[in-house]
Structures are given as structure tokens and as C-alpha cells.
Amino acid sequence: MKIRTLIVDDEPLARERLRALLESEAEIDVIGECDNGNAAVETIREQKPELVFLDVQMPELDGFGVLEELQGGRMPAIVFVTAHDKFALKAFEVHAVDYLLKPFDRERFQTALKRATETIKRRQTDELSHRLSALLAEVKPETKIDRIAIKSSGRVIFLRLEEIDWIEASDNYVSLHIGNDTHLHRETMTAMEEKLKGGKFLRISRSTIVNVDRIKELQPLFHGEYSVILRNGTRLTLSRGYRDKLDTLMGKLP
Q: Which residues does 91 contact at the CB level (< 8 Å), separation at least 6?
């Protein structure tokens, strides 16, 4: 599927050059042009492009003003285009994918386009992963999930919960450890714990959830903590604040 792209610039020659460059790209579908900020806001809301080449300096409403008007809605990937480098820092502060300084050559344009398409594809894969996970939950509304859809190397793959050894917090992601492999999944630790509630998984610290079927041994440490040793030799820690989980853990062990 082609990337729906909008050109926004108040200079006709600048729009013409961008269109010529974009139309030679097989992945791009130029859906239109705008010569001012107000028209850009309206078109972006109606047409929902995935990529916008946006001029910074325009009469009435400049490029930054366009983004302010779009706050709260779905934001396309933005490549700013301008003749002045003084706007570069602000462009990246508002999370622009790239910044093209006029006049730019085809090589610099290709670099910006590559960054933009990679960003868009990552977004699309993340969204697909979340939709598939939600779909799996809806398919079995009366039972716990038994699979997780995750993004891996540009693909979406399914992991069976029983395959997972342990789970580690990583900011707004979790790392799913399966043998020697690790898969990153966009989910908070709290949300992950809720999804796994009632199954063979138990949270043993703020940053760790373990598959109790993988536990080989528990060893007491200092200050009420325990070392949790998995069958593959991995050592985890049951924190003192999760000491009440020990009885539950012992009851779940085979």
C-alpha cells in the first residue's frame, strides 16, 4: 500500500519540485498540494495523509501553527521544508521526522524520505500488533489469552504464553524472554500483569514477572528477599515488597 503524501508550500516552484521528486517514488501517492497553512489543516483532517512535506514560513499560519491546530488528532509524519536553518531545532522539538533546507539535492531528499517511510512503517506495524492483540482477547472473552502478537523485524509474530520464561520491564515496553531469545513488546508491566492474571505467571518484583513452571529453585537472601533460579540457570529476585507472593508461588509450583 502506498504512503499517502501531502505537499504544503506557498511557493509554486517549491511544490512543483517536491511533486517531481515524490512522483518518481514507487511507495508514494501524492494526494494533493496546499499553498497555505489553513488549507493544510483542513486537508490533513479530511484526507488523513500519512506523510506531509510542510513549509515552515507561510502567510497567516506557518508550519508550526499547522501542527498546533492539529494537536489532539492523528498526526502524520512531518518533514519540514524551509530556506532558513534557524528553525531546525524547533522542528525536532515538535518531533519532525526530518528537516530539509532549501535548496536541497536529490540525495538529501532521499535521506529524508527514507527516514519518513521507516517511521510510518514502524507506526503501522505497532498499530497492527495492538489490533491483533485486542482481537485475540475478543475472540476468547470468557478465557485468558494464550498468545501475544508482537512486532519483530518488520513482521507481526504470535508467541504462546507457555513459551515465555520470564518478563522484564523496559520503560513503556516489556522484554519477553524465551530461551536465548528476547522480544520487545509495547505494554506496561501493570497491564501485562493484568493480562496474565490467574495463569501460570506471577509478579515477583516491580520489574519482573516469572512463569512459575520455569522455576527450579528458591534460595533465601538477606532482608526477606529470595533468589528465584529458573531451569535454564537464570537468576531473578523476589523482592521483599512482594514477599506475600511467596505463598502463592509455592502453591503454583509443580
A: 56, 80, 99
